[in-house]
Each structure stands twice: as C-alpha cells, then as structure tokens.
Amino acid sequence: MRKLIFHFGLFSFLLAVSLYFFLLQFNGKHDDFYLRLTTPQQESLVIGTSRAAQAINPTYINPLIKPHQLYNYAFSIFHSPFGEIYFNSISKKINKKSKNGIFIVCIDPWSLGVTQDSIHQEITFIEKDFALSGVHFVNQKPNFEYLFFYSTNTLLDKYLNNNKSTFLHSNGWLEVNIPMDSASIQKRFQDRIIKYTERKNSYIRSKERIFWLTKTIDLLQKHGRVFFIRLPVRQQILVLENQVWPQFSNFVSDLSRKKQIPFLDFSERSHHYLYTDGLHLHQSSSKIISAEIGKWIQEQAGRN
Amino acid sequence: MLFNSLPFLIFFPFVFFVYWAIKRRSYQNVFLITASYFFYANWDWRFLFLLIFSTLLDYFSGIKIGESEHSTTRKWWLWLSIGINLGFLGIFKYYNFFVTSFVDLFQQFNINLQVETLNIILPVGISFYTFHGLSYVIDIYYRRISVERNFIDYSLFVSFFPLLVAGPIERAHHLLPQMKNERRFRYEQMVDGLRLILWGLFKKVAVADQCAYWVNDIFSNPQDQHSLTLIWGAVLFSFQIYGDFSGYSDIALGTARMLGFDLLRNFNFPYFSRSIAEFWRRWHISLSTWFKDYLYIPLGGSKGGKKMQVRNTLIIFLVSGFWHGANWTFIIWGLLNGLLILPSIFFNTNRNNLEIVAKNSFFPSIKEGLQILLTFSFTTIAWIFFRSESLEKSMLYIETMLTRFKLAIPENYSSRIVFLISILLLFEWFGRKNETVLSIFSKKPIAIRWGIYLFLSFSIVVLATKKNSFIYFQF
User: Fold this and answer.
1) I want to staple B254 with a disulfide (CB 3.0 to 4.6 A). Which of A18, A26, B197, B367 is the partner?
2) What would the mean pLDDT of A144-151 be, rounded to a whole number?
3) Rounded CA gap, A213 and A87, in Å?
C-alpha cells in the first residue's frame, strides 16, 4: 500500500505541477472574466455590468486620482446585476483593511430589474446560473475553481481561443475589437434593440435588487468614497430605459442625496459618444469618458 | 455519481482506503454494499428500494428453487422471479412504448384509442441488475450453480457499484466466488486497475465526449448536411459509442480490480474485427454471451439446422436491440445486425477469426485490412439507426447521405478529433494482444511510461466537458 501511495502521490504531484503551469498561461485573451478572479484584493473598484466593463478604463482615471489604483470589477448583466451574489463577490474582492478607496458604481435600470415569465409569473434572478454564484475564491491565480467548474467549454478550447475580438486587461478593463463599419454597427444595434425590447416586456423593477444596491453602497462606504455613474447609451436604448423606469436618473439622484454620493449622469449626452452596438461604448469613447470621470472625481475630491 | 465526476473522485479513494483498512472479508463486503447503495442512491434514492426488492426477490427465489426437489415448485419460483423482474423492466422501460405503438397501429385503421402513458423515469441500471439477478436464478434452476445463502454476499453480487449502473453483466459462477474469497492487496493488481481507469477515462473524455459535440450537431439536422459530412458524423458516432461504453467498462473493471475483483471483459478491440460475427464476439461481450446462454441456447441454438439457427439468431438480435431501448430505432439496429450476420451463418464462417487480427505479425494482410474496413462500414451504417431519435430521422440521414453528394471537406471536420481517434486506434493496435491496452508500456523505462500516463491524464483534464453522462446509463 505504501508503494502505491508513494507512486500515485508522486504521479499526482507531477500532474498537478504541469497543470499549474498550464493554467498560469491563461490571460485576458482566453476569457472575458477570468483575470478579474485572479488578481489580489483591491482598494478601489469599478462596479457594474458589461457597460462599465467596456466603458471605464482605469488607465485613464488612475493618473488623475493618484495614489488610488482603480480596478474594473464589472462583469455582465448576467453575472453582475445588483444582488446578493454580486455583493458577496465584491466583499471578497475588497481589501478589508482599506478605508480610503474609490468606488465607481455604474447604475442603470437593467441592473436593478428582473425578468418575469408572463405565463408562470416566475421571477428569474439570472445571475444564479452564472459563475459568480459559485466561485468562492476571487483572488487566486490560477483560479482552479473558475476554470474547472465555471468554464462553458473545455480548458483546451479556452486556451486555443481564436476569438480575438475581446481582451481583458490586467486592470479589469475589457477591450473589444469588432468591425466598426456602419453596416456592422447597425446590425449589432438592431440585435440589441430586439433583445432589449424583449427584456423590456418581461422587465419588473426589483425591490430586492434595490435592497442589495444599498447594502453594496453601505459596504463600499466603509472602505472609502462611492461615486454614482449612469453611462450613456444610444437614444433608442435610452427610450427603452425610460419606458421600463421613467425618471431613473431622479431615483439615482434621490439615492445619492440620501447616501451623500456624488452622481454623474451621462444619459442625456448619448450623441457625444461612439457605441459598438448602441449599449456599449467603443474603446475610443471609453478613453474619453474615463478621462471625464477621472477629472470629475478629482474635482469632487478637491471639494472635500 | 458519474465515474468521470468530482464526487466519484472523492468517493472512490475514500472507499478504497477504508475497504483495504478493513481486515475481515465479511466486514469488507458489508462496507462495499453500503458504499454501493450510497453510490446508487446518489442517482435517485427512491429507486434504491426497487434495487433492494429485486435483490430480495432473487435471493429468496434462488433459495426456494435450490431447496425444492419438485419440478413444479422450482418452475413456479423461477417464473415468479422472471415475471416480476421482467415486469418491472416492462413497466419502467417499455410500457409507454407499447402503449404508443398500439395507439399508432390502431390509428392506421382510423380507430382512436385513449390510453394514458406513464409519467415515470427509468431507474438507472435496471436493465443491468435485472439481468444479473435473472442469470443467478436461471443458473440455480438448471443446477449450474449452488444456492447462495449469505444474503450479504448475494447483495454485493447484485449491487457491486462498479458494475451496478452499466455492467458488465456478471454471472454468479464468476463473481459470487470472488465475494466469498479473501482479497489480497497486490501492488501489480492496483497498477493494472489504475491503468484501466486511465485508459477508460481517456476513451470517454478525450474521444467520446469530443466526438459527441460534432455528432450532436450533425445528427440534429441531417437534411442540411452533405454526404461527406454525414459519413463523417456516422464515423464519429462509431467512435463516440465505443469510447463511451468501452471507456465506462474499463473504468468499471479498473475500480473493481483495485478492490480485488476481476470482472468479465466487455470489449475486446471490436473495431479490429474482420466480420460482423467477430464484431459481436468482441462488442459488449457480457450482454452477447448472456443472450447466447439464456436465450439462444434455450431456443435451440444451432440445433435443428440452418433454418433454426437463422431464426434464433434473428430473435436474439431483435431482443438485444429492444433491450437497448424502447424505440423502433434500436429494434431496426438489432435486426440489421442480425441480417448482417446471416451470410456468415449460411457460409459457415461465423466461427472464423476467433483470434485477434494479425496475431503473429504487426500489420494485417491487405485482405484482413479490407475486411476490417468493410466490417467497420457495416457497423457504422447500423449505428445510424442506434443514434437517430426516430426511424424517420435515420432514414432521412441515410437518404441525404446517399443523395446529397458534394466533394468537400466535412463542415464539422476537426483535426483534433482525428488526432485523438488516431491515438486511440494506435494504442489499441499496439495493445490488441494484451488484456489491458496500457500494459504494453509496463516494461518501458519509467520516463516513457510516466510520460505517456501524464499525457493521457493531462488530456483528460484539459478536454473534460460538463455534459459528460454515459450513453449506456439510459439503458
């Protein structure tokens, strides 16, 4: 038995070491989320969905808010709408000792809503089916848990990923490189309109999500200053947003007054920016808006 | 709990160490039964009662048959056991099929029958443990074996977890004595078991599951594909089903071996067969021999001339098809294989090729190579029925394959799969004269041996998918 244990143990060790080095090779080109779950705990975070993930590039904010180092911890509308799951993930990602961080919280009506089945009236908290609901470790490299249990395809497929359209940077910003000719943009935009019209029809405002948003804010305020941002979208998407939640900006303004959080609303400036699909900002606009946000935070900090 | 899952990765080492830490055989058996019931309950605990009932039924039937000298009493207990066992199988597996088939049949004559179908799920492994129990009771009836009075040993024979859900279908005369013998821990046996598990996992994860991805795609809409893609899809399914089922069997044999048991070999390099008759001596051996012993021979076997032999052969292939599932696709698959084997019966060649191909040389002769290719082609065509959801779909598949010819590389061609299948075939060709494929490396230097084991293990990990159930669990 001893001989078997020794040989099997040695073999398992060699296998584990080779796997370890293989998994260390995974980087931003292999997965749109993985890298965010491999970095150490952070003092300053960007919170939100894919709109924030693609729009807010810490590279253009960090020089303006020195010595803070923002980290983009926004995922997608499926992974990270406001709720218990995202709250728990954020609380694991924050450096517990930090008291002076900066937190940019991007809010929109979709991240505070749920979909309801029109037949069975069943409410779906979509994030329960996605990675953040099950990943216990968010600061581990390589992150075995995510790669083994929450990858949609095999490790080899992930590693050989030929999808060169996205790249997740080490600061958490998701770079998207897709054709930007007018036909391609229009096609993607039409797809978004169809998807978000469908979503609008089953959308209901969620008290639970609002509760978890306030809990998230309370948590972040313990570790520093919070800033609310409503990111821009193309006019037609904004019309849909206004239909599901009229005067959403007023809701955010009320909350910001109540919680003493500065609020920067880009929703009325949709025509200033370029979008990949009407919902997500193109990287050229991401650069501009990130610098604007950085400057605004700088001003806010100067006021206090 | 799947063999290729994390729970089993925790379950089996725990069972292994506790089992070998127990010194007394009887306690080891009690522990293995507990572990087996836990393993089974992990699928669906409600069906554990069915398994226990089936075990009790055959145990007591066996005692009653063995004790009695009156042929009527013996026969009565035999048929009680057969009736109840097949009754359960009939209700759970075939009731809905018969009902819908009758309704469809009457509808042909404009008679609309209103018969309720049952909303039930098939208990995993029922076809396998039912056949275990039946073989035991029938063997006692024919006085081939003596009655087993130790309920623990008998229960373990029926519910031993490595073979519980998808075989191999064991025989009492082979496995029961092992339940009663002391087991000795032997390093070589453990290594052999580990090699079987490793090779089985490779076949399942790296070959079958990789093929499955493309097979599902091609078989879901055959009408949209061209000939070469459909041929490619059928070939991939041949390797998927082989990798899946023989992989499962190897893992079952390997885990059993690590616990000191030798199970019946279920596969013996079937794709190197030179005829359909040889193929069926090498594919799902435990089921083929079960049907031979408990159906073909009682029906008269080959006694009574060619006519009788043809009739009995077609019957066992039809029943074998039906055993696989309550669907006309399986019945046609069985019938097709039965028809394919008939020429060898007519020309008295069905007992040819008893030895593995190229036993005394490395390469097969050109004739043998062509025979292997032809046999593989026939079995692949038959697999189309096995894989299709309905007869209509299988006919559509074949029709499109024969008519939509286009000289183009299959749309779903993947060089990775070709590479993985090549490894499978290469290793099996080298290992075809051995009982276990990987034992060909046992005499190689440690660097080569471990290098190959590492490569296979690494492939399993990086190719593992989430959708990984075994095909034969549905039977």
Assistant:
1) B197
2) 87
3) 8
Q: Which two tokens stand for residue B221?
A: 């809409």
Contact status of B458 with chain A (Cβ, < 8 Å): yes
Distance CA B319, CA A39 (A): 59
Q: Which residues of B97-119 are buried (b: 16+ CB within 10 A; e: fewer)?
A: beeeeeeeeeeeeeeeeeeeeee
User: For A170-195, how does the pLDDT look when each residue is reduced to its tens digit (9 = 90+)?
Assistant: 999 999 999 999 999 999 999 999 99
- Please, which residues 194-253 of chain B have a Cβ atom closer than 8 Å to chain A? 194
Beta partners for residue A114, in sequence order: A204
Structural element, H or E, at residue A45:
strand A44-47
Identify whether A9 is part of a domain: no
A15 domain-assigned: no
Edge-to-edge strand ranges of the sheet holding A224-230: A70-72, A44-47, A101-106, A224-230, A263-265
* Assigned domain for A232 exists: yes
Residue B245 C-beta-side C-alpha neighbours within 13 Å: 26
Distance CA A82, CA A112 (A): 6
Percent residues over pLDDT 90 in chain A = 75
Task: Give pLDDT, residue B84.
Answer: 94
Contact status, residue B62 vs residue B140, Cβ threshold 8 Å: yes
The token pair at B203 is 């076949």
| Residue-number span of the structural domain to which A289 is assigned | 27-303
pLDDT above 70 for A46:
yes
Count of domains for chain A: 1
Nearest to B393 by CA among B217, B225, B211, B223: B223
Q: What pLDDT score was predicted for residue A76?
A: 94
Residue B358 binned pLDDT confidence (cut-offs 50, 70, 90): confident
Contact assessment for residue B236 and residue B207, using Cβ atoms and an 8 Å cutoff: no
Write the pLDDT tens digit of every residue in B243-274. 999 999 999 999 999 999 999 999 999 999 99
Q: Residue-wise over A179-210: b if at least 16 C-beta within 10 A, else e?
A: eeeeeebeebbeebbeebeeebeebeebeebe
Query: Residue A150 sits in a domain of what CATH number?
Result: 3.40.50.1110
Q: Is residue B101 less than 8 Å (CB to CB) from chain A?
A: no
Q: How far apart, in whole angstroms, are the C-alpha atoms of residue B433 and residue B444? A: 17
Domain assignment present for residue A1? The answer is: no
Residue B126 and residue B92: Cα distance in Å, rounded? 9
Q: Tell which residue, B134, B128, B141, has the closest CA to residue B63.
A: B141
Task: Kindly compute the dihedral angle of the four CA atoms of residues A219, A221, A225, A229, in this order, to the nearest 10 degrees.
Answer: 60
- Mean pLDDT computed over every residue of chain B: 90
Could you tell me which residue, B100 or B36, shows the higher pLDDT? B36
Q: How far apart are CA B84 and CA B425, in angstroms?
A: 43
How far is the CA of A243 from the CAs of A1, A237, B337, in angstroms? Answer: 70, 10, 63
A80-94, A124-138, B178-192 — which is least confidently predicted? A124-138
The reply to whether residue A15 touches residue B458, judged by beta carbons under 8 angstroms, is: yes
B190 interaction partners in chain A (CB closer than 8 Å): 4
Residue of chain B with shortest Cα separation from A20 = B458
- Catalytic residue check, B226: no
Q: Does A20 touch chain B (CB under 8 A)?
A: no
